[in-house]
RNA sequence: GCCCUCGUAGCUCAGGGGAUAGAGCAACCGCCUCCUAAGCGGUAGGUCGCAGGUUCGAAUCCUGCCGAGGGCGCCA
């Protein structure tokens, strides 16, 4: 196996057209060759239409000239013709398609390059709150962030995952105080019955503590003292706090394992971490004259954003009573990630309602001189998960939906469908497949629609397993694997002189376009681009599957088709992995 | 008041300067002696929110309007 990049045919054709443009009109050298996949040929170039005016000619004439130049070129085109108002339709020889397939099969990375090499990317995602259940609100950031981490990493970025845990704040004062006053309470994971989690217990205890805080003035006072003790580093208080953090992380870990998310405890860099940096951040901003006093608080007035009163909107750097909120920690994160982590790409995967907040954080970071031209900072916003009523997803009683419950529900429904479709499965195989299909269905449903749009969480639809769902992709993969198993998983061998059937041709062209889909994910930060590609690929495979028998074909066609199966299976498996979805061998 | 996002088939969504606007679901009609029918083929369904503008060409870019959602000082 090699790991040299295999250039996609689209790029090779584009290079040819670029050469043709430079040859025919040297003054237009460097212009976009406007090469796309085409319904009328393998590829088409629309360059003649785009450039005719600059070339002082008519589109059909320019197209004709480009066609002639392409015919002389030693590039990949075998058949070039002008069509319509000036489209240049380009067809590539079958042999070249086979060569691409063979080269990708021989390559450990399917011929993908590492265009993001040299980028150091921080991705901030998931960010659950300590001592609180993970709920629907954490689903999208966790799934989307993780997929982006995988894709960007594969493309050569050095990815630094940051799980910005909500592990600091006044709420811990009352929780710790309450636990201290009630040593009989059990909440550690090893004290609880199986299936119960420490965060679930802590979440309940926090509510109780909160009620006590509101009812009992003396308890409230002791809780406030406890906040002070926590913030000033009192050893006993800190020890208890660390215990709560670590127990909570165990519960998060269960969810991450189940979701197949890459986050590890090493990626946890919560709010508390920034504590020791806040005074430096504030000093720097104050000395630079960016942060100023206002109504007793320290704020940064935006030069871009105004509030309801028409005055500049502020970031709250230090509250009137001296405390710090999320504005301050977020200013600290961006400084830390640029100065200490030395990242040149910073992604914050949070819901779209925080857009204005990040706009102001980035503005402040630019004014402070932290965020400079070579560094990209981006809020990666996503829409709300809605319930069947079109309102933010809640339980019937109006509470938040626990993430674990939601996953249980999806998996148990998946199990019903899987066992109906395949009643012969052994119990443990059924469990495993139901888990993979159910979790995959949830993740795919989340990743496969436009990130910024709200979407309705509809388990029935996700788990119906028809159409553009995760299971369709998994199913396509198992059908291919079944063929390959029956063939004995042979070493690929391709005879490139064999003529391609239309379905084979469409499949081969699609397989060749994988890298384009991945680059689009990198530039748009939309996993949907990868989902769409994989769905198209699975459909192209299914068409091929219907039209081109593999095992019963005569050699050398059989081997060639097996090679297409192998590359499709590997590409599907690989793409699903970048989405964080497993590709079972059987279903 | 200002700002952001969204408006495409009955429903859920792709397409974000190029040829007849595409899928899935739901509906209807077909297809398992054949590599997994969790599949495939077909029929039907659209003034791409509205109105201007830019362009050889606009669902796509610009402006305005309408509608939905969200945000804008001490919650993240």
UniProtKB/TrEMBL annotation:
GO terms for molecular function: arginine-tRNA ligase activity; ATP binding. Residues 473-587 form the DALR anticodon binding domain. A motif ('HIGH' region) lies at residues 128-138. It comes from the Bacteria. InterPro entries: aa-tRNA-synth_I_CS, Arg-tRNA-ligase, Arg-tRNA-synth_N, Arg-tRNA-synth_N_sf, ArgRS_core, DALR_anticod-bd, Rossmann-like_a/b/a_fold, tRNAsynth_Ia_anticodon-bd. It catalyses: tRNA(Arg) + L-arginine + ATP = L-arginyl-tRNA(Arg) + AMP + diphosphate. SUPFAM superfamilies: Anticodon-binding domain of a subclass of class I aminoacyl-tRNA synthetases, Arginyl-tRNA synthetase (ArgRS), N-terminal 'additional' domain, Nucleotidylyl transferase. It is found in: Cytoplasm. Its main location: cytoplasm. Its EC number is 6.1.1.19. It holds the Pfam family Arg_tRNA_synt_N. One of its GO terms (biological process) is arginyl-tRNA aminoacylation. CDD domains: Anticodon_Ia_Arg, ArgRS_core. Keywords: Aminoacyl-tRNA synthetase, ATP-binding, Cytoplasm, Ligase, Nucleotide-binding, Protein biosynthesis. Residues 11-92 form the Arginyl tRNA synthetase N-terminal domain. Gene3D superfamilies: Arginyl tRNA synthetase N-terminal domain, HUPs, Isoleucyl-tRNA Synthetase, Domain 1. GO terms for cellular component: cytoplasm. PROSITE patterns: AA_TRNA_LIGASE_I (PS00178). Belongs to the class-I aminoacyl-tRNA synthetase family. Monomer. NCBIfam families: argS. This is Arginine--tRNA ligase.
């Amino acid at each position: 196996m090699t790991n040299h990049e295999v250039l996609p045919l689209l790029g090779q054709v584009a290079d040819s057209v670029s050469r043709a443009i430079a040859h025919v009109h040297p003054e237009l050298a460097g212009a976009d060759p406007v090469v796309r996949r085409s319904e009328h040929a393998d590829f088409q170039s629309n360059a003649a239409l785009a450039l005719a005016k600059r070339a002082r000619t008519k589109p059909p004439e320019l197209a004709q000239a480009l066609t002639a130049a392409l015919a002389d070129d030693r590039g990949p085109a075998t058949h070039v013709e002008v069509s319509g108002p000036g489209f240049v339709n380009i067809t590539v020889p079958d042999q070249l398609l086979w060569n691409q397939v063979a080269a990708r099969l021989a390559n450990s990375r399917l011929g993908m390059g590492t265009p993001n090499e040299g980028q150091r990317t921080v991705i901030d995602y998931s960010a659950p709150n300590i001592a609180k259940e993970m709920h629907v609100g954490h689903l999208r950031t966790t799934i989307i962030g993780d997929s982006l981490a995988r894709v960007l990493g594969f493309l050569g970025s050095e990815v630094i995952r940051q799980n910005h845990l909500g592990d600091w704040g006044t709420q811990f004062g009352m929780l710790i105080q309450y636990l201290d006053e009630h040593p009989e309470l059990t909440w550690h994971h090893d004290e609880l019955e199986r299936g119960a989690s420490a965060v679930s217990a802590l979440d309940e205890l926090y509510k109780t503590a909160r009620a006590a805080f509101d009812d009992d003035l003396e308890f409230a006072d002791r809780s406030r003292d406890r906040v002070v003790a926590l913030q000033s580093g009192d050893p006993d208080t800190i020890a208890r706090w660390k215990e709560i953090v670590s127990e909570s992380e165990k519960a998060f870990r269960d969810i991450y394992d189940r979701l197949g998310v890459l986050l590890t405890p090493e990626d946890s860099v919560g709010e508390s971490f920034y504590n020791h940096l806040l005074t430096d951040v504030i000093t720097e901003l104050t000395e630079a004259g960016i942060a100023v006093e206002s109504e007793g608080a320290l704020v940064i007035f935006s030069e871009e954003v105004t509030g309801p009163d028409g005055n500049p909107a502020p970031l709250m750097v230090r509250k009137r009573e001296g405390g710090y909120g999320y504005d301050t920690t977020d200013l600290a994160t961006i400084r830390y990630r640029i100065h200490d982590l030395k990242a040149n790409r910073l992604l914050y995967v949070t819901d779209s309602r925080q857009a204005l907040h990040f706009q102001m954080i980035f503005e402040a970071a630019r004014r402070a001189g932290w965020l400079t031209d070579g560094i990209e900072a981006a809020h990666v916003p996503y829409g709300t998960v809605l319930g069947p009523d079109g309102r933010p997803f809640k339980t019937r009683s109006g509470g938040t939906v626990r993430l674990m419950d939601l996953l249980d529900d999806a998996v148990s429904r998946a199990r019903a469908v899987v066992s109906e479709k395949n009643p012969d499965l052994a119990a443990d195989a059924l469990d495993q497949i139901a888990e993979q299909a159910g979790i995959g269905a949830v993740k795919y449903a989340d990743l496969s629609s436009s990130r910024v749009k709200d979407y309705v969480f509809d388990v029935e639809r996700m788990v119906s397993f028809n159409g553009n769902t995760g299971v369709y992709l998994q199913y396509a993969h198992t059908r291919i694997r079944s063929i390959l198993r029956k063939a004995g998983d042979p070493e690929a061998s391709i005879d490139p002189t064999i003529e391609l059937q239309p379905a084979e041709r469409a499949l081969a062209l699609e397989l060749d376009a994988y890298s384009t889909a991945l680059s689009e994910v990198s530039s748009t930060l939309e996993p949907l681009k990868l989902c769409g590609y994989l769905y198209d690929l699975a459909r192209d495979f299914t068409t091929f599957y219907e039209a081109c028998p593999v095992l019963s074909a005569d050699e050398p066609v059989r081997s060639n088709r097996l090679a297409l199966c192998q590359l499709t299976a590997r590409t599907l498996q690989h793409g699903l992995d970048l989405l964080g979805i497993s590709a079972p061998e059987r279903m």
